[in-house]
Specification:
There is one protein chain. It is built from 14 helices and eleven strands. Helix 2 packs parallel to helix 3, helix 8 packs across helix 14 and helix 11 packs antiparallel against helix 12. Strands 1-9-8-6-5-4-3-2 form an eight-stranded parallel β-sheet. Strands 7-11-10 form a three-stranded antiparallel β-sheet, with helices on one face. The model has no long low-confidence stretch (mean pLDDT about 95). By secondary structure, it is α/β, with parallel strands linked by helices. It is globular, with a radius of gyration of 18 Å. Helix content is about 45%, strand content about 15%. The structure holds ligand TUI.
C-alpha cells in the first residue's frame, strides 16, 4: 500500500512501531522493519552509549529502514541527538518535548525528522522548524500522554499542517488503521500491539497483563504533576492515585514509580512496576509475530478502505 509516508520512508506498509522505552530494543525494531513496517529503537531514559550499540546491532540484522525515538526528557538527549547523526540513522522520532534545537543539525545530516505531538500548536511549530511528518498521538496511548483523543487530534492536525500525519493512540487492528486513514492520517504508529509480539523481549508477566487487560483497565497517574502517564492498573497506580488525591509531594510520588518501567519490562514485576500500555490493550488478545500483526492489519484495513 502506497501513501505519502511509505514513499517518504521507503517502507512497504504504513505501519510504524512506537519508540517505547525499554521495550523498543533492536530485536523488535528489526522484526517490524523486516515485516515491511518501520521499526524504531526507543532511547527512553538510556545512556547515549547504549543507544549507539542498539543502532549498530539493528544495522547488523536488517538492511531495511529503521528509526530511533529520542525521549527528550532523557538527561543525555543532547548526546543521543549527536549519536543518530554519527551512526547515519535515516529516521528520527521524538517524544515528551520540543526537539526544535536539534532540527537544523538533523536536517543538515539528511535525517527524516518526525516529532510526536499531542497538540495542533506543536504540530504547526514542528512543521515550521522543518519536520518531514508528525505523529499525532492521542491520550488513548500508553506512557506519557497529552490531553486530546486520537479521534479529535488527528483531523485537526491534518488540517493544520501540510506534512503527512501519522496517527497514534488506540490503534491495534485493521479497523483502527482504516479509521485513522479516514481521519486524514497517512500511516499509523502502534505500541501496545507490538509489546506482545513474539519478537518483543518484554517479560512474559507484562505480556500476560496486556493480554488480560479489558477496556477500562488502564489508569492515568501524574495528572497533578504535569506528567500524566497511562499504565495498566495495579498496586502502584492505586497507591499513586491515592497519594495524589491526598496532595503528596512530587518527591513522594516519584519515589513510588522510580525505575518501575524497567522492573516491569525486564523483571516482570507487574504488581509494583509500571505496566505502561494504551487503552486498546483490551483488544490485544494474543502473541503473534510482527509479520503476522502487520499482515493481519493490512488485509483487514485495506478491505475496509475499499468499501468507500
Ligand atoms: O513520549 C511519549 N510517551 C512516552 S515517553 C515515556 S518514557 C518515561 N518513562 C518513565 C516515566 C516517564 C516517562 C513513556 N511514554 N509519547 C510522545 C508524546 N509526546 N506524547 C505527548 C508528547 C508531548 C507532550 C508535551 C510532546 C511535546 C510536549 O510539549 C512540548 C513543549 O512544548 O515543550
Amino acid at each position: 500500500m502506497k501513501t505519502k509516508i511509505t514513499e517518504l520512508l521507503g517502507i512497504e506498509y504504513p505501519i510504524i512501531q512506537g519508540g517505547m522505552a525499554w521495550v523498543a530494543e533492536y530485536h523488535l525494531a528489526a522484526a517490524v522493519s523486516e515485516a515491511g513496517g518501520l521499526g524504531i529503537i526507543g532511547a527512553g531514559g538510556a545512556p547515549a552509549s547504549f543507544v549507539r550499540e542498539q543502532i549498530q546491532k539493528v544495522k547488523e540484522i536488517t538492511k531495511k529502514p529503521f528509526g530511533v525515538n529520542i525521549m527528550l526528557m532523557n538527561p543525555e538527549a543532547d548526546q543521543i541527538a549527536q549519536v543518530v547523526v554519527e551512526e547515519g540513522v535515516k529516521v528520527v522520532t521524538t517524544g515528551a518535548g520540543n526537539p526544535g534545537k536539534y532540527m537544523a543539525m538533523w536536517k543538515e545530516a539528511g535525517i527524516k525528522v518526525i516529532p510526536v505531538v499531542a497538540s495542533v500548536a506543536l504540530a504547526k511549530m514542528m512543521e515550521r522548524a522543518g519536520a518531514d511528518a508528525v505523529v499525532a498521538e492521542g491520550m488513548e496511548s500508553g506512557g506519557h500522554i497529552g490531553e486530546a483523543t486520537t479521534m479529535t487530534l488527528v483531523p485537526q492536525v491534518a488540517d493544520a499542517v501540510t506534512v503527512p500525519v501519522i496517527a497514534a493512540g488506540g490503534i491495534a487492528d485493521g479497523r483502527g488503521f482504516a479509521a485513522a486513514m479516514m481521519l486524514g492520517a497517512q500511516a499509523v504508529q502502534m505500541g501496545t500491539r507490538f509489546v506482545v509480539a513474539s519478537e518483543s523481549i518484554v517479560h512474559e508477566n507484562y505480556k500476560q497483563k496486556v493480554i488480560a487487560a479489558k477496556d477500562i483497565d488502564t489508569a492515568v497517574t501524574g495528572r497533578s504533576t504535569g506528567h500524566p502517564i497511562r499504565c495498566i492498573r495495579n498496586k502502584t497506580t492505586r497507591e499513586y492515585l491515592k497519594l495524589e488525591k491526598e496532595g503528596a509531594t512530587l518527591e513522594e510520588l516519584e519515589k513510588l514509580t522510580l525505575g518501575g518501567l524497567r522492573r516491569a519490562v525486564l523483571e516482570g514485576d507487574v504488581v509494583e512496576g509500571s505496566v505502561m500500555a494504551g487503552q486498546i490493550a483490551g483488544l490485544v488478545k494474543k502473541e503473534q509475530t510482527c509479520a503476522e500483526i502487520i499482515q493481519e492489519i493490512m488485509t483487514q484495513g485495506e478491505k475496509l478502505l475499499k468499501l468507500r
